[in-house]
TrEMBL record:
Pfam families listed in its UniProt record: Peptidase_M24 (PF00557)
CDD domains: APP_MetAP
Name of the protein: Peptidase M24 family protein
Source superkingdom: Bacteria
Domain spans labelled Peptidase M24: 156-344
InterPro entries, alphabetized: Creatinase/aminopeptidase-like, Pept_M24, Peptidase_M24B
Originating species: Arthrobacter globiformis (strain ATCC 8010 / DSM 20124 / JCM 1332 / NBRC 12137 / NCIMB 8907 / NRRL B-2979 / 168)
Residue spans crossing the bilayer: none
């Protein structure tokens, strides 16, 4: 398998978007949305503590060191301004590379607790906890603003190109780990973080979350990427095979694309996630997968500053709005389809699109086919 040489990876990194975080117009709009939440709740401050909320509100600032760790900062939003609390060993880098204008920085010793400084800043009034307004914050994140929409579109296109570049170079003898490592190299070279990398060859196609192994791809394989840059997460799945495919596979691929088409048709402004989920359940039965297929894997939902924000279920009542982004991922035995899309005034647009990848037109949208090598 041809893996990008270090020189190529470095060249790609040099070409990756280097926009500083904190688009002024978008930041002002986000601050107003939070102030509206404070008005509605009768509070004067809100404490943001999750990766999702922090990167959204700070408009793309990286608030992590370990991908598996907690954020290295907390943000107190009050009626006076924005106050970021971090550890003393993180402050210099955050100031130089991550902190947008207008955010006041406060530090605690590396061995102390962020809450120590937050309590002092909040004074006598206890700030709202993020979890107390989780639904309101989700609603504030859903209509994407112009700057973040543009960043998201670039990230999604980069992730789709990485998938194409890697899978076009595979053979039946390529291992799952080789696919995952090549994807990781491409994603990191593009200035992003590979949050999820999945791959299964023909012998492991029954697994819906297949962590890579040393197994060869064999005659057919799936790869999945969730890549984060500026806080935004692009999600996509692609398939490759090295023969003509069996009649059963071709039939199932067509039917899962039909399920997805029904989901897209139901995802319109004003719809509620619970109603879309009911359509997902009906679509599986309608296209021959059985009424219980939805129970075997999550179905996706709104996307953006989290892989799914939130995962849709029968109980989610969020309302779909214009400029919102989604990643639906219907799946069946040996099949899955997944792209990140955005609802715009012109309709649904696919963001994770690489024109080099084979596609078919379904209801005006280019939908990925299995790459046949």
């Amino acid at each position: 398998m041809n893996v990008p040489a270090p020189a190529i990876a470095l060249a790609e990194a040099a070409q990756a978007p280097a926009a500083a975080p904190g688009n002024r117009s978008d930041r002002a709009a986000k601050r107003q949305r939070v102030l509206d939440i404070l008005d509605a709740k009768g509070h004067d401050s809100l404490l943001l503590t999750s990766h999702t909320a922090l990167t959204w509100y700070l408009d793309g600032s990286r608030m992590h060191v370990s991908l598996a760790g907690d954020p290295i900062a907390a943000l107190l939003v009050d009626r006076v301004g924005d106050h970021l609390v971090t550890f003393n060993n993180e402050a210099e880098r955050l100031t130089a590379e991550e902190l947008p204008p207008g955010v006041e920085l406060h530090t605690v010793p590396w061995h102390a607790q962020l809450a120590d400084a937050v309590d002092a800043l909040a004074g006598s009034g206890e700030p709202l906890a993020e979890k107390a307004v989780a639904a309101e914050l989700r609603a504030a994140r859903q209509p994407m603003l112009p700057g973040e929409s543009a960043r998201y579109a670039r990230l999604c296109a980069d992730a789709a190109r990485a998938m194409t570049d890697v899978l076009y170079r595979t053979t039946p003898d390529t291992t799952e780990f080789e696919v995952a490592s090549a994807l990781a190299a491409r994603i990191v070279a593009a200035g992003a973080e590979p949050l999820v990398l999945l791959c299964n060859g023909g012998l492991r196609s029954a697994f819906r979350h297949p962590l890579a192994t040393h197994a060869p791809l064999g005659r057919r394989a799936m790869a999945v990427v969730c890549a984060r840059r500026h806080g935004l997460v692009a999600n996509l799945t692609r398939w490759v095979r090295f023969d003509a495919g069996t009649p059963a596979e071709l039939d199932a691929e067509g039917r899962i694309a039909a399920v997805e088409a029904d989901i897209f048709a139901a995802t319109v402004p004003g719809a509620r996630l619970g109603g879309i989920f009911a359509e997902i359940q009906a679509a599986y039965a309608r296209h021959g997968f059985g009424a219980d297929q939805w129970t075997l894997h999550h179905q996706g939902g709104p996307a953006g500053y989290a892989g799914r924000d939130p995962r849709a279920t029968a109980a989610t009542d969020d309302v779909v709005v214009p400029n919102q982004t989604f990643t639906w991922n219907p799946s069946g035995p040996g099949v899955k389809i997944e792209d990140t899309v955005q609802l715009t005034a012109a309709g649904t647009g696919v963001l994770t699109l690489d024109p080099r990848w084979p596609a078919s037109d379904i209801n005006g949208l280019p939908r990925p086919l299995t790459l046949q090598l």
